[in-house]
């Protein structure tokens, strides 16, 4: 019999070299694809991060504007409240002007002959009057005149003393009020038809 010997060693080495080359090529290709995918992912995430930072900057800018607007509105509200308080003061003063004139007119109208006022203090609706009278009877008459006035309540006499030149000094207090039937302007009210 005859034996044929075939040497397969070079063929195996060529096949192994081819497989090694193919494997190296596949590994290189996988590495390139992996690097490309990684680089693409990094670019995508960087773009997302840049977009997010841009949105954050926009939101921060809007919040700054809103804070500025809120401060401005708060200042406007404070100014409006201040103006409202000033208007209320002006209205009270406007209402009080005719009332003060009315009080002085009532004081003049109720003044008895021989009675002189030397001092007048006003706190709210209470008047404190100091003055001189020729005698005690005139002080009593003055108290009755004030009580009869539609502008004053019952006066309270706190002190009567003898003064120089046979005059009597007196101190009294009386509450004032707007007479019924008169409005804030001191004009008698008229009923609607």
UniProtKB/TrEMBL annotation:
It comes from the Bacteria. Residues 66-93 form a coiled coil. InterPro entries: Extracell_DNA_Util/SecSys_Comp, PilN. Keywords: Coiled coil, Membrane, Transmembrane, Transmembrane helix. The keyword Plastid does not apply. Signal peptide: none annotated. The chain crosses the membrane at residues 23-45. PANTHER family: DNA UTILIZATION PROTEIN HOFN, TYPE IV PILUS INNER MEMBRANE COMPONENT PILN. This is PilN domain-containing protein. It comes from Halomonas aquatica.
């Amino acid at each position: 019999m005859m034996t044929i010997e075939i040497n397969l060693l070079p063929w195996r080495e060529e096949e192994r070299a081819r497989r090694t080359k193919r494997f190296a090529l596949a590994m290189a290709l996988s590495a390139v694809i992996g690097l490309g995918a990684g680089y693409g992912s990094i670019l995508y995430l960087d773009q997302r991060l840049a977009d997010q930072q841009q949105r954050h900057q926009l939101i921060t800018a809007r919040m700054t504007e809103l804070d500025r607007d809120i401060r401005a509105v708060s200042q406007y509200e404070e100014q409006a409240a201040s103006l409202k308080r000033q208007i209320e003061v002006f209205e009270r003063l406007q209402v009080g002007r005719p009332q003060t004139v009315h009080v002085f007119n009532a004081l003049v109208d109720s003044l008895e002959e021989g009675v002189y006022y030397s001092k007048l203090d006003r706190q709210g609706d209470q008047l404190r009057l100091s003055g001189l009278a020729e005698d005690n009877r005139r002080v009593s008459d003055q108290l009755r005149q004030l009580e009869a006035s539609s502008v004053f309540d019952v006066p309270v006499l706190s002190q009567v003393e003898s003064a120089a030149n046979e005059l009597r000094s007196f101190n009294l207090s009386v509450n004032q009020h707007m007479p019924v039937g008169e409005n804030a302007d001191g004009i008698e009210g008229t009923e609607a038809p």
